[in-house]
Amino acid sequence: RGFPRRPERKPFFARCSLCPWPVTSRQSPHRALAPSASPTRPSPAALKPRKNHTHQTHSPGTDTTMPASIAVFLCLLSVANAAAMDPAERETLFLVMDAVSSDRDWRSESPDPCGAPWPGLECKPAPGTAAPLHVTRLDFGVEPNPSCKDAATFPPQVLTLPRLQSLFFVDCFNNPAAVTALVLPSANLSSSTLQQLSIRANPSLSGVMPPQLVRLRSLQVLTISQNGLVRGEIPQGIGELKSLVHLDLSYNSLSGPVPSRISELKGLVGLDLSYNALSGPIPSRIGDLNQLQKLDLSSNNLTGGIPDTVANLTSLTFLALSNNGLNGHFPPDLSGLRNLQYLIMDNNPMDVPLPSELGSLARLQELRLAGSGYSGPIPAAFGQLASLTTLSLEDNNLTGEIPAGLSRLHRIYHLNLSNNGLGGAVPFDGAFLRRLGRNLDLSGNSGLCLDVVRDVGVGVGACHGGGGGDGSLARDSVSSAARGVMARGSTDSFRFRLLGPVCVVVICIFLSSE
What we know:
Layout: H1 44-47, H2 68-83, H3 87-100, H4 106-109, E1 121-125, E2 133-140, E3 166-170, E4 180-181, E5 196-200, E6 205-208, E7 221-225, E8 229-233, E9 246-248, E10 253-256, E11 270-272, E12 277-280, E13 294-296, E14 301-304, E15 318-320, E16 325-326, E17 342-344, E18 366-368, E19 375-376, E20 390-392, E21 397-400, E22 414-416, E23 421-425, H5 430-436, E24 440-441, E25 447-449, H6 480-513
Parallel strand pairs: 2-3, 3-5, 4-6, 5-7, 6-8, 7-9, 8-10, 9-11, 10-12, 11-13, 12-14, 13-15, 14-16, 15-17, 17-18, 18-20, 19-21, 20-22, 21-23, 22-24, 23-25
Antiparallel strand pairs: 1-2
InterPro entries: At_inactive_RLKs, Leu-rich_rpt, Leu-rich_rpt_typical-subtyp, LRR_dom_sf
Protein name: Leucine-rich repeat-containing N-terminal plant-type domain-containing protein
Region (Disordered): 20-64
């Protein structure tokens, strides 16, 4: 599981314009050969003596290169100057490899890692210079990048690489018998050039959320996710990371409040704090994040109402607040959420009437409000949600009839209104029922009925008389249409029973005539 071996290493002279042919790192300069030459036998052209004309005129295609030994020497000198790493930086990289990889041969196999980089390693010179090369990207854990050994430990010194811009540890620390701590160095972080840090899917990574994170001022993307042993509070100083565009701290064991200073991250586009143990209210100034497109605070222990300022998130397309303790207040004006496409708020004890304002969210595609104690009727305005594909209102306290406008939602393919107190005739025609099929669930509403018998399995019986009537269920659960089918079957059976004697009489008459 160590670093992958690479028989196809890049030639050291690939960037050298002075070389007429590449010379690999394993060749001696005295054995450098042209591409047409054999590695053991020189070509005849190479052995043929050259004529020395002082005033020779060269036509196109004529060899004008300097002697190979001089060219190789100049290339070696050029590449040595351009590709050499700083010794201290190279040693830091080797320490990182020692902590993560089981391969112990990299010091001898790759004495100059930036000269022949492997997958997952990128090197570049500092801006405005040609030398030396610096490590700018390290990516561990997912092929073709280097995999991690069973006893891999998190190497804090990796964040002291002076020009590092991107760092990834994905599915790297996953041995339950080798738990490693997430610890960052305290020095040299404020001047860090790191722009992207992703530490994801490491079940054996432990420790508190490092407070030193707030000193990585160049960070644009911070992902510390799916590391179940990472705990503690989100640092209040998170507001110092003014360059952040995406912040993902989901699927950890974080506790405490959502920091109020998170509203200072004005450029934030994505915020995901889901599946933690965060508590307290949603910060009232969350609406200051006017660039935010995704907000996921689901599966925490958040309480209180939904702040009115949420309606200021005019760029928001995805809002998930499910599986919390949110209750009571719902913003009275949602017109600012004109770009919202997904609203997921299942399993919160809201205990309020279902807000009719939700019907103004014209771009809404999924609306999930199950198990949240909503009461009253389903607003007729929901019939205006022309883009809606999923509506989940099950396990609430809804009453009244199903709005007829829902039958005109031509894009909907999943509708669950089960386990409420709805009543009356279901307003869906046969085409609607067939289109949704098993994706329609109306069960658990004792007052609902269908005006005709349809084999669609929606959990609703037939109305009295087959025409709706008062909407009450027929006690025998059989409609007049079904009785008609049974009557026709009885008549056919009677006719079949008479057919036998008639045939016998006909046969007897035929035989007597013979």
